[in-house]
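Q: Give me the 3D complex with guanosine-5'-monophosphate.
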Amino acid sequence: MSYDIQQIHDLRFRRFLSRTEIADRIVAIGKEVSADYQGKQPVIISILNGSFIFAADLLRTLTIDPFITFVKLSSYQGIQTTGLVSTVLGLDCSLKNKDVILLEDILDTGKTLYEFAHQLQQEHQPASLKIATLFYKPDAVQYPIQADYIGFSIPNIFVVGYGLDYNGFGRSLPDLYVLAEE
Ligand code: 5GP
Ligand code: MG
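A: Here is the predicted complex, encoded as structure tokens.
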């Protein structure tokens, strides 16, 4: 599928970044990561579901040979006023003294990465921890978290495609789409 406008459920989206622009940027990030981790074997943790396509494309640009694993984070409203808690499903290897890179599809409020990164530092004591996010919404960030590798800074508008969904659909679109104004 490849149209300038996509209808998903009740909403219309328009193409914002093409697959070529995304692919070029991922090659550049891959070069940076390969240079930074030359001679090392980092553990790359891809945060599901959204980052699976980014992970697949980025990993194949690397000239290092990382260990790759996937986690799924589920958030729920806790009973304390402190709010939301994340649960990690699938982290099946030791990260102690390892160089870890978290791969995220998009950094929005920053809550997911802030909590997960904090939890990893506390529980697993990695040697180092870096964050790579393909998309970043600077105007949406509410938590003190910074990504070390950023694909694109984008406006604070809902996006779909390239792994990102709207209610389960749109992930397979090869380009990135933004919510179209009516
Ligand atoms: P954050 O915790 O930084 O607020 O965002 C966490 C998650 O919300 C992201 O990993 C992503 O799954 C989802 N998300 C945030 N912004 C968008 C968006 O514009 N589109 C889609 N499809 N998901 C988003
Ligand atoms: Mg995500």
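A quick observation: Residues 47, 50-51, 104-105 surround magnesium ion (ligand 2) (CB under 6 Å).
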